[in-house]
Amino acid sequence: MATTPTKPNVPSKFQTEVAGMISGFTNDLPTTVKNLTIAGGSMTVAAILSQLNAIMTTINTVATTKTAFTEAVAARKAALPADKAFIAQLVMAVKLLFGTSASQLAAFGITPPKAKAKPTIKALAIAKAKSAATRALRGTKGKKQKAAITLQGQSTLQVLGPDGQPVDPADAGSSSGSAPATPAAPAAAAPVTPAPTPPAAH
Predict the structure, then answer these.
(1) b vs e for 102-111, b when ≥16 Cβ sit within 10 Å of the residue's Cβ?
(2) pTM above 0.70?
(3) Cα–Cα distance measured from residue 76 to residue 61, given in angstroms and rounded to the nearest whole number
(4) Which phi and psi angles does 159 have, rounded to 5°?
(5) HEC states along 137-150?
(6) HSE-CB of 146 using CA atoms within 13 angstroms
(7) 44 closest CA partner among 57, 35, 56, 53
(8) For residue 189, how many other CB atoms are within 10 A of its CB?
(9) Torsion angle of alpha carbons 117, 118, 120, 125, nearest 10°?
(10) Full pLDDT tens readout for the chain, 202 residues
């Protein structure tokens, strides 16, 4: 598991001052100096060094603890997704084992599922009224309402002839389904017989 690199600790101004004091009293103080007057009182060099070292110890402890804390937080963030997935699978396994038993699930820190509340008569009436109002507002119709809608009047069909004028449906039907009628041949004229001539008188 990769860890986030920590930033190096930068010494504070106070920490630098303490470190300088320790170095000076240890390496650069003349050997003839045995005591110093501090806050109106005399204090030996050994006592001064002891207190300086105690101050530095607390500073270093804070720095070390801060580094450890930063590393611990980074490790926690890196492991959190996998840890959450494991706990989720474990919860599912426990639920499969005990079902919906509230007491047994609670013993494992699992909140049992809430029972679905049955709607009251008042709630059902309000829901039905809201639904009817919404349907009326949207113009929504049910199957029975749609079936009750019928066409008023009768549908008609108009046939137009080649000239664009309306054609009687009866004529259109007789002419469209049969061949055009052949005109009848003219009747032949009967031969004319001349009347007899009467005899002449004597």
Answers:
(1) eeebeeeeee
(2) no
(3) 22
(4) -105, 130
(5) HHCCCCHHHHHCCC
(6) 5
(7) 35
(8) 6
(9) 120
(10) 455 555 666 788 999 999 999 999 999 999 999 999 999 999 999 999 999 999 999 999 998 999 999 999 999 999 999 999 999 999 999 999 988 888 888 899 998 877 777 778 888 888 888 888 887 788 776 677 766 666 555 556 666 777 877 777 666 555 544 555 555 555 555 555 555 566 555 5
C-alpha to C-alpha distance for 26 and 46, rounded to whole angstroms: 10
Angle of helix 13-23 relative to helix 45-98, nearest 10 degrees, comes to: 140
Structure tokens at 78: 């890196």
C-alpha distances in Å from residue 5, one per residue of 2, 40, 75, 81, 177: 9, 48, 11, 20, 97
Residues, the chain, total?
202
H or E element that contains 186: none
Query: Which string of b and e fits 12-47 if b means at least 16 CB within 10 Å?
Result: eeebeebeebbeebeeeeeeeeeeeeeeeeeeeeee
Enumerate the domain spans of the chain: 13-98, 102-139
